[in-house]
Design a protein that fits this description.
One of its GO terms (molecular function) is oxidoreductase activity. By secondary structure, the protein is of the alpha/beta class. It has one domain: NADP-dependent oxidoreductase domain (TIM Barrel, Alpha-Beta Barrel). It contains 13 helices and 10 strands. The strands form 2 sheets. It has an 8-stranded parallel beta sheet. A two-stranded antiparallel ribbon has the order 1-2. Helix content is 40%, strand content 11%.
Length: 394
């Protein structure tokens, strides 16, 4: 997943294009089919991963406020105790999400150095939690293999290849690992104030850092996130000159947010052999069917998935439910399978607890047929798409 920034900060420069998307139609899928190589790299991961953005987070996924029971305390001592209990409960839920995922055959986890704000009291960095969960699991099951993907934050004061290596080593320390499977640039530098220094020069330095990380054995594969078609081609070409494949581009992609099909990102990934990693694949819960016009999501998500939008979404949700009943699958499992059926796509839904993780695993081992894939896209096309992450349009 990516950080959310205001779309007012960036300009939309991409053109809409007619999507060219391949679909796989098969109801019988072997275990080996549920593993996929990331781009031209040698790294092979499960066809569906788990996003760990919510692990340790006390902001976006907690509606930027304390839990209800915490707000009831005016006494600092009692509030501190309650905070500790809340953090412990959420940590146990995240640990259950990790263990249930691994038990269900999902061993690809995506995190980032900016997940879990250090500025929020009670927050624990997502990388720290993931590293802890891996260590505890390996103590019980030494043979378990977990593929970790994390990301470099292109912050304004980070201006060179050494900043990438430095941030990566900090991430490895938090994860308690000597290397990770995939390291990604979290977003393309959009800072207009740095134009005079040459934006591409700054991003070029970041790409040099990715290449250095591969050559130093700190990562097995490298990728980018929220990159437009133009930036994706530039990154691919630069790394290719060093003999290093660009393994992935992580972007917002779901049944109701299909910008990667329309702005050339999906077709470019297919053309260049770059895997598209889809964050927000269930539209932050909007496609699960749990929200209705009478019961919209709270917090920041409620500003996106409004009662008006959810009213227009109901016909699509009803059809998703009907198709799910045919396969004995939930709405969530159907929409994740729809993404897998696009080919060259690895969805990474966020699992906050074991129940969600178990449901996600049910999206594997079967396939929607081509008629169902096309029908769902046709229904979704009638709905005005939601706002995505604006950096991908630069």
């Amino acid at each position: 997943m990516a950080m959310h920034l205001s779309s007012a900060c960036f300009s939309a420069l991409s053109e809409r294009r007619v999507p060219r998307v391949r679909a796989v139609a098969s109801e019988n899928v072997t275990a080996e089919d549920d593993r996929v190589k990331l781009g031209g790299s040698d790294l092979k991961v499960t066809r569906l991963g788990i996003g760990a953005w919510s692990w340790g987070d006390t902001s976006y996924w907690n509606n930027f406020q304390w839990d209800g029971e915490i707000r009831n305390y005016s006494n600092v001592f009692m509030m501190t105790i309650c905070l500790e209990k809340t953090a412990d409960r959420k940590m146990k839920a995240a640990k259950a999400a990790f263990d249930v995922s691994v038990d269900g055959g999902i061993t690809f986890f995506d995190t980032a150095e900016v997940y879990g704000s250090r500025a929020s009291f009670g927050a624990v960095n997502s990388e720290t939690l993931l590293g802890r969960f891996i260590k505890e699991r390996k103590q019980k099951d030494p043979g378990v293999e977990v593929a970790v993907a994390t990301k470099f934050a292109a912050l304004p004061w980070r201006l060179g290849r050494q900043s990438v290596l430095g941030a990566l080593k900090d991430s490895l320390n938090r994860l308690e690992l000597s290397s990770v499977e995939l390291y990604q640039l979290h977003w393309y530098v959009p800072y207009e104030a740095l134009l005079y220094r040459g934006i591409w020069k700054i991003n070029s330095g970041y790409l040099d850092g990715l290449g250095d990380a591969v050559e130093q054995g700190l990562v097995k594969a490298v990728g980018v996130s929220n990159y437009s078609e133009k930036r994706l081609r530039e990154a691919h070409t630069k790394l290719q000159k060093r003999g290093i494949p660009l393994a992935s581009n992580q972007v917002n992609y779901s049944l109701i947010y299909r910008a990667p099909e329309e702005n050339g990102v999906k077709s470019t990934c297919d053309e260049l052999g770059i895997t598209l990693i889809a964050y927000s694949p269930i539209a932050q819960g909007a496609l699960t069917g749990k929200y209705t016009p009478e019961n919209p999501p709270s917090g920041p998500r409620g500003q996106i998935y409004t009662p008006e939008f959810l009213t227009k979404l109901q016909p699509l949700l009803n059809r998703i439910k009907e198709i799910g009943e045919k396969y004995s699958k939930t709405n969530t499992q159907v929409v994740l399978n729809w993404l897998i059926a696009q080919d060259n796509v690895v969805p990474i839904p966020g699992a906050k607890n074991g129940e969600q993780a178990a449901e996600f695993a049910g999206a594997l081992g079967w396939r929607l047929n081509s008629e169902e894939v096309a029908e769902l896209r046709a229904l979704a096309t009638k709905i005005k798409p939601v706002t995505g992450f604006p950096v991908e349009k630069l």
